[in-house]
Amino acid sequence: MIEVSNLKKSFGKLDVLKQITFDVNKNDVIAVIGPSGSGKSTMLRSLVHLEEINDGSIFVSGDYLVRDGIYSKPQEIKRITTKMGMVFQHFNLFPHLTVTENLELAPRMKKKESLEVIRRRSTELLQKIGLSNWAKAYPSTLSGGQKQRVAIARALMTNPEILLFDEPTSALDPELTGEVLQVMKDLAEEQMTMIVVTHEMGFAKEVANRAIFMDNGEIIESGHPAELFTNPRFDRTKAFLSRI
Ligand code: ADP
Ligand code: MG
């Protein structure tokens, strides 16, 4: 579904991604772990073109977003990035819009579907995340867990083929992480393809079929979570795992 090869990205003199290569198959749930500053967010952001890479290729279900460092045309980039939905650590909801308006903004702007169709989907998704009663509420009145569930529903509104999560529970009080992880678990059970940057090892073990350990802009190792967490092959992985 996604093929990333030899991805390179630097900010000035800082090489943040060095030759990142991995692929994502349909229905994969991939947990990306690694210390702060290792390039996890930059890698995810590159996939949805929130960052421009310096070299390498990103291939998304049949189309190149970027090939050997050369980006596709803007229209093509837009078409490819809409195949992916992104959920951020800090929710990034629009504070001046209600929950329903947050959900409907992107599909409405696209003008490809009737409001009726869009409304049906937002209603369904609010039901799915258990927030039907909050349709007209503003984000500031929601708990962190509720906000993140809304952000997930919003990402689903455009029917993405793959969802990217960047530390979706890191900004939440511990008692609120469970409800967000549950929504993600439900999505995995529905065969949603997902890449999840997370420190929730329990979730990674239970839900992911592959874990990738990144350090200092590189993928150090990857494998089945149970195997990688219990039998890491490299010292850097061992050191990281012993700290969390
Ligand atoms: P992680 O998500 O693993 O914590 P990031 O991808 O956020 O890592 O950051 C990787 C490195 O890139 C860090 O050293 C960070 O300071 C740097 N970095 C990230 N974004 C920028 C930016 N916009 N400008 C300059 N440096 C950045
Ligand atoms: Mg990050």
UniProtKB/TrEMBL annotation:
Query: Keywords, A to Z?
Result: ATP-binding, Nucleotide-binding, Transport
Q: Which family does it belong to?
A: Belongs to the ABC transporter superfamily.
Task: Specify the ABC transporter domain's residue ranges.
Answer: 2-241
Q: Which GO terms describe its molecular function?
A: ABC-type amino acid transporter activity; ATP binding; ATP hydrolysis activity
Q: Which Pfam families match?
A: ABC_tran
Q: Which domain of life is it from?
A: Bacteria
InterPro entries xrefs: AAA+_ATPase, ABC_ATPase_HisP-typ, ABC_transporter-like_ATP-bd, ABC_transporter-like_CS, MetN_ABC_transporter-like, P-loop_NTPase
User: Looking at the keywords, is Protein transport present?
Assistant: no
What this protein is called in its record is Amino acid ABC transporter ATP-binding protein
Q: Which PROSITE patterns match?
A: ABC_TRANSPORTER_1 (PS00211), ABC_TRANSPORTER_2 (PS50893)
